């Protein structure tokens, strides 16, 4: 990624060796055409008079619009919010500079809401950790016009890189929690129901706050699970009977409460949720358990746990900043825990049916297949970016690529799945490109692992093919491109009845004549297609 | 002090090797921005504060070293 930063003062020392070019001061006309990401980073200039400052700030937003009009839609535009680090104020009651700064920031936030390729970087998130004297060293300002103290460079760079990661959505999915002295004070097996500290006075109050914070995190799409060495019966009855617990049985789609090795349990949890170990953060107060997990499951993140319960709020804040911050939450994120809950319930009723068809019928599965549109495009894009295992070609696209496909008349469908246990939301997609009037090619096909294992993948593709038949398409071409993660779908097209044309180490090409074939779908799915 | 200073040079300029003949003239990395970074590192490491005119005089390894010695001994 190449960055181009539009700026009004010296800031090079903050960014170090990143691949960045810089504008001239206050030059928002000459933009580096080779850059992938354009950044607006203005610091409030040093001016003695509030009137002059306000006047200057008021010009910024118009200039940002000018920049935006010059850059292409497929480029990303990061805009730093403005902060009045150096207060220019001669009367307590004069709020003109604060108001101008706030109104600029508000305009930027609203502007970003309208355009998918604009992201706001909240500079206050960095500056709030420091005082004015730390942020500005006048000596260096006069020597080099570098307003931010060069001493801040390292922590700034660290913070900035983290912001980029967050925007690019590097978020962990799941927390595995210990119970004793982690979610509550004391040891349930020794101290008993009455002796365990949760709620009330310190330290119970600190553990309660920790539980409340975790609850909020789970509502934003992080899955909470438990792995604890305890008697399962004791914990379940404690969960069901203690009214002061914020987190209980209904918040953990999966738990392992037993005396087995924790690494084994964690692997099982990942397996049951169908997520990778690299998506897991393990939280345990016991250093030897942490060490064990670090040793044997190096992909799992294992943060240090504070010894004093009053440090839990800052522990939680670090956890959030480091692993779970997102740029914005989608509707899918918000419903995720419920979906995983429904999935693990599904797994448990599966055992009671002898006949798989009977089981699938009992699920009342509904597939809704819709063309990609303004309401689902962001989820569609997210899935092209994040789906690894059931992804036939693993082509990654952004909003503008997808909009481009729609505009040029290609066929894009997304799949929503629900059953009697819950709505999984949009969990699959397919991109079909017209090669000519009678032939289309499956450019991309992907499904989320959450919905696999119920024949949905076949029903989805067959429904789409039946739709293509009605559109007078004769032939469908398709491709499998091997990656490290999509081994499970290497024979998917064979299973569907496609003919293998040729293959090499990484690619398999197929075709099928659809008008002369019948693609029948099991009758236990209720399917609607747009 | 000399070896500490060498380390600062290496770290700041991200160089594998630095000798005592390094100067603004012969080292490409020693530009005006890195000069500031160098000053910050030196001030923190030796717990001294350098004045702008002094900073301007520190143009090669020996002048930097002399400046630090005179500051530290005070």
Describe the protein in words.
Chain A is α/β, with parallel strands linked by helices and 530 residues long. Chain A has 3 domains: 3-167, SGNH hydrolase (Rossmann fold); 174-324, 3-Layer(aba) Sandwich (Rossmann fold); 350-529, Gcn5-related N-acetyltransferase (GNAT) (Aminopeptidase). Chain A is 40% helix and 20% strand. Chain A is built from 19 helices and 17 strands. In chain A, the strands form 3 sheets. Chain A has an 8-stranded mixed sheet with strand order 15-16-14-13-12-11-10-17, sandwiched between helices. In chain A, a hairpin with a 3-residue loop joins strand 15 (499-503) and strand 16. In chain A, helix 2 packs parallel to helix 3 (96-114). The model of chain A has no long low-confidence stretch (mean pLDDT 88). The radius of gyration of chain B is 11 Å and the shape is globular. By secondary structure, chain B is mainly alpha-helical. The mean pLDDT of chain B is 90. Chain B has one domain (2-73): ACP-like (Non-ribosomal Peptide Synthetase Peptidyl Carrier Protein, Chain A, Orthogonal Bundle), CATH 1.10.1200.10. At the A-B interface, helix 6 of A face helix 2 of B.
List the strand order in the largest sheet of chain A: 15-16-14-13-12-11-10-17
Rg calc of chain A:
27 Å
User: In percent, how much strand structure appears in the residues of chain B?
Assistant: under 5%
CATH architecture classification of chain B = Orthogonal Bundle
Under CATH at level 1, the class of the largest domain in chain A stands as Alpha Beta
User: Uncertain runs of chain A with pLDDT below 50, 5 residues or more?
Assistant: none
Q: For the terminal residues of chain A, how far apart are their CA atoms? A: 38 Å
């Amino acid at each position: 990624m190449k960055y181009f930063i539009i700026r009004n003062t010296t800031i090079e020392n903050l960014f170090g060796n990143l691949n960045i070019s810089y504008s001239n001061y206050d030059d928002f006309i000459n933009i580096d055409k080779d850059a992938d990401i354009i950044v607006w980073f203005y610091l409030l200039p040093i001016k003695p008079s509030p009137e002059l400052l306000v006047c200057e700030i008021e010009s910024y937003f118009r200039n940002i619009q000018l920049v935006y009009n010059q850059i292409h839609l497929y480029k990303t535009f990061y805009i730093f919010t403005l902060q009045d680090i150096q207060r220019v104020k001669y009367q307590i009651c004069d709020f003109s500079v604060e108001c101008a700064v706030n109104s600029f920031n508000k305009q930027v936030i609203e502007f970003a809401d309208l355009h998918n390729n604009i992201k706001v970087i909240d500079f206050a998130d960095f500056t709030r950790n420091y005082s004015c004297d730390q942020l500005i060293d006048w000596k260096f300002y006069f020597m080099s016009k570098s307003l931010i103290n060069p001493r801040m460079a390292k922590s700034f760079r660290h913070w900035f890189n983290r912001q980029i990661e967050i925007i690019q959505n590097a978020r962990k999915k799941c927390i595995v929690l210990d119970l004793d002295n982690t979610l509550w004070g004391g040891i349930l097996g020794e101290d008993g129901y009455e002796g365990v500290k949760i709620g009330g006075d310190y330290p119970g109050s600190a553990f309660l706050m920790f539980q409340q914070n975790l609850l909020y995190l789970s509502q934003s799409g992080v899955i909470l699970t438990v792995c604890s060495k305890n008697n399962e019966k004791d914990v379940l009855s404690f969960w069901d009977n203690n009214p002061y617990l914020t987190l209980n049985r209904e918040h953990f789609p999966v738990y392992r409460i037993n005396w087995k090795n924790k690494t084994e349990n964690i692997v099982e949890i990942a397996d049951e949720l169908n997520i990778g170990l690299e998506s897991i953060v393990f939280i345990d107060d016991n250093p030897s358990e942490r060490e064990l997990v670090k040793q044997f499951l190096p992909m799992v993140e294992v943060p240090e746990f504070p010894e004093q319960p009053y440090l839990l709020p800052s522990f939680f804040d670090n956890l959030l900043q480091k692993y779970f911050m997102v740029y914005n939450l989608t509707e899918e994120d918000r419903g995720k825990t419920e979906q995983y809950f429904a999935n693990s319930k599904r797994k448990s009723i599966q055992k009671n049916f002898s006949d798989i068809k009977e089981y699938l019928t009992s699920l009342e599965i509904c597939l809704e297949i819709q063309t990609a549109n303004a309401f689902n495009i962001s989820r569609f894009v997210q899935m092209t970016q994040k789906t690894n295992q059931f992804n036939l070609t693993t082509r990654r696209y952004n909003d503008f690529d997808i909009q481009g496909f729609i505009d040029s008349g290609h066929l894009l469908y997304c799949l929503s799945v629900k059953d009697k246990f819950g709505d999984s939301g949009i969990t699959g997609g397919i991109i079909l490109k017209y090669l000519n009037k009678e032939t289309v090619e499956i450019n991309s096909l992907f499904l989320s692992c959450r919905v696999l294992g119920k024949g949905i993948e076949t029903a989805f593709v067959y429904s789409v093919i039946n739709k293509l038949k009605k559109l007078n398409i004769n032939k469908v071409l398709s491709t499998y491109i091997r990656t490290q993660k999509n081994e499970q779908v290497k024979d998917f097209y064979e299973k569907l009845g496609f003919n293998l044309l040729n293959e090499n180490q990484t690619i398999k090409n197929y075709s099928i004549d659809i008008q002369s074939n019948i693609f029948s779908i099991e009758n236990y799915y209720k399917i609607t297609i747009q | 002090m000399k070896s500490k200073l060498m380390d600062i040079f290496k770290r700041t300029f991200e160089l594998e090797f630095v000798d005592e003949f390094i100067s603004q003239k012969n080292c490409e990395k020693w530009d005006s921005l890195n000069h500031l970074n160098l000053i910050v590192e030196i001030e923190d490491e030796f717990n001294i504060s350098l004045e702008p005119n002094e900073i301007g005089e520190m143009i090669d390894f020996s002048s930097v070293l002399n400046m630090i010695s005179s500051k530290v001994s005070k």
